[in-house]
Amino acid sequence: MVNKLLITPFQRFVKIESFSGILLFSSALLALMLANSFFGEKFLSLWDYRIGISAPGFELNKPLILWINDGLMAVFFFLIGLEIKRELLIGELNTVRKAAFPLFAALGGMLVPVALFFLINRNPGTTHAWGIPMATDIAFSLAIITLLGTRVPLSLKVFLTAFAIIDDLGAVLVIALFYSAGIKWLLVIISLALVSFLIYLSYRKIHAKYLIVFTGIVVWYLFLKAGIHPTIAGVLMAFTVPIRQKVDVFTYSSELSRIVEKIKTSADNNLPILTGKQIEEIDNLEELTERVQSPLQQLEHRLHNWVAFLIMPVFALSNSGVEMGGGADLDYSLGLTIMISLVFGKMIGITLFSWLGVKTGLAELPEGVRIPQILGISLLAGVGFTMSIFIANLAFADSPALLDSAKVGVLAGSLVAGLAGYLFLRLSCKKPDPGDRAKC
Fold this sequence. Notes:
This protein has a two-stranded antiparallel ribbon with strand order 1-2. It is globular, with a radius of gyration of 24 Å. Helices cover 70% and strands 3% of the residues. It is mostly helical.
């Protein structure tokens, strides 16, 4: 059973992600239109404009597109890291039994698309793009499933979110292990030492947010220079943020009552302003309120809107512009391979591995969820967009034509998967009567 205490925050999460998915789609569509308009050349060249910092013995100068993909997306990966840590400690993945079903689904959703890519791909020069079809875009997929309203039970949305988070973790590991080259291990060791120190402080319940920010920038820079994609630093830094509050809720409630009482008793009704004692107690209340909040939860809450409504749309706008005109030198074979791997790989992998998990008794279907719904969700999982395009940027950093071809495959596959998943769930799931559960 889905924990009722988690429903309201989760529904808020789904609402944010759903609207973010609409923004992502709009940004991608706008980028395609601009890239193929009469000023497409200027639009595409905008992202090559170099911005940086230069000083004696130090230089950090990169094109705008790389500041977005290496810099802004590090914040996106930091948020992913926070979500992964929360789910592993107190969420849907905090026990083997709870994690088993989405884990089976995620494994199938990663392994089968990769296997299908190797099976279909005939060009040795594009083999290293195998990681592109293994990702699921949670914002897009939740946006589509939300359009179905009450036809889809909340437990199915929780399942989609859970396996997408495991999917993200898999993508992060793949980027770290297979899409980083020429690694300078001394810089990596220094980075890991800094991260380990912050994890130790977190273990000792010491949370210094400005130290985390400063260290995070240093670790990001060291990863950049070490040859490991710097967005991985965002995930690692997320694990240094404590999840426990400094003050528990019961202590907070007790102190809150005491402060409120002091504010009442120290009032001067003859004055239209607060007394010095009242201001002091309000300051105490602000400090106490800061201490009762989980640092991880607070950061996740504050970053979510920035990532959903700014960083991801900017990423989509800067990375989805593909020139489709007659002059475009696209490898349609690569695009088709990625599209097939995304759509059919996700559908077969998630459905098959979920079924195997249930049949072997190692996992069980969440309450209110049935295999036909899993098939519909597996189609939606073929919407790879954000992470797939991100991996494509790494796979074809030195080949603009192949990069554009991969983007076309991701966009086409995501469109087909999204439409197929929506239509399947809409036709197979009836809208329930008031008070009844959704049934497929």
